[in-house]
Amino acid sequence: MKDLGWKNLLRIELTDKGREFHGKLTNKESIDYLMSALTREEQKQIWVLLAKIRRRAVKKLSIKEKDLYPPSDLSKLTSLDKTT
Question: How many domains does the chain have?
């Protein structure tokens, strides 16, 4: 559906099935599982880079950072401390 206020903006809405899939994909266990394909050093590198991008997006969108996962602070990411 086109947004009449912005000519280059397209709004989308998730279906119930899409919301269910998004919920499964974005929970902590799923993220940890997907990240386990990387070495611990690779995981640290990607978290640092993604945290930089997320901080920029959060600032741009004026989002109140509550309890986002994965955390931007690498020291709070306990899954990287586990032996893989």
Answer: 1
pTM exceeds 0.70: no
User: What is the rounded CA–CA span in Å between residue 69 and residue 32?
Assistant: 10
Q: Which of 65, 57, 68, 54 is nearest to 26 (CA)?
A: 68
Distance, C-alpha 28 to centroid of its chain: 10
pLDDT (tens digit, 9 = 90+) per residue, 53-74?
888 888 888 877 666 666 667 6
Task: Let me know if residue 20 belongs to a domain.
Answer: no
**Helical segments of the chain, H only:** 16-25, 28-35, 40-61
